[in-house]
Amino acid sequence: MSDDAKAAAKSGDEITVVHVMRHGEVHNPTGVLYGRLPGYHLSDLGRKMADRVADHLSGRDVTYVVASPLERAQETAAPIAAAHGLTVGTDERLIEAANVFQGKTFGVGDGSLRNPSHWKHLTNPFRPSWGEPYIEQVVRMMGALESARDAARGHEAVVVSHQLPIWTLRSFAEKRRLWHDPRRRQCSLASLTSFTFQGDKIISIGYSEPARDLLPAHLAGKKAFGA
């Protein structure tokens, strides 16, 4: 708990914590951008990550667990809910960001970027032109965050979503610009971005990686945003 949260608790004000979690690793042997496509489940490693976070949160006062409707998010939330005797709720607002490259591989030199018909989607990184506008992600994610806060008033909630919507939500809450370099997101697999509320007001935002030692080597070595 942050110093602000401790001070608020001492004053008798109601404190609620909402942990916004990114799902664990997904089984994706072909390396496509799966986006909102159905049928993408956690890998064996992803399930270990979910179990690790469930253990990490087992002693916390979690009274509400909700997830994106996509399989990988529901499967990540399941052991956390089970550890607290809860069922996993579903909130459509927590879904992955829409992306026109869904179902394709995406990278320098691959077929999706070599195809001139796709270039029109790369004209405006500030919106962005290839997918769901950042501001639309903010609106739906803030709504889901506030609903979880209300459902767990005075306790803690766990909300399972996806990297881009989580990072966009955090950027908005911390009053940063929404467009960014994707390589600089601080939102690793199975990470927790924790929003502490005093009443309805966000008073602190924390970040932790309970499953960091389980991350694949190429991800575990990445620097955090601002480090």
Automatic annotation (TrEMBL):
InterPro entries (UniProt xref): His_Pase_superF_clade-1 (IPR013078), His_PPase_superfam (IPR029033), PGM_Phosphatase (IPR050275)
EC number, UniProt record: 3.1.3.-
GO terms assigned for molecular function: hydrolase activity
Listed SUPFAM superfamilies: Phosphoglycerate mutase-like (SSF53254)
Transmembrane segments: none
Annotated keywords: Hydrolase
Keyword Oxidoreductase: no
Entry-linked PANTHER family: BROAD-SPECIFICITY PHOSPHATASE YOR283W-RELATED (PTHR48100), PHOSPHOGLYCERATE MUTASE (PTHR48100:SF51)
Name this polypeptide is given: Histidine phosphatase family protein
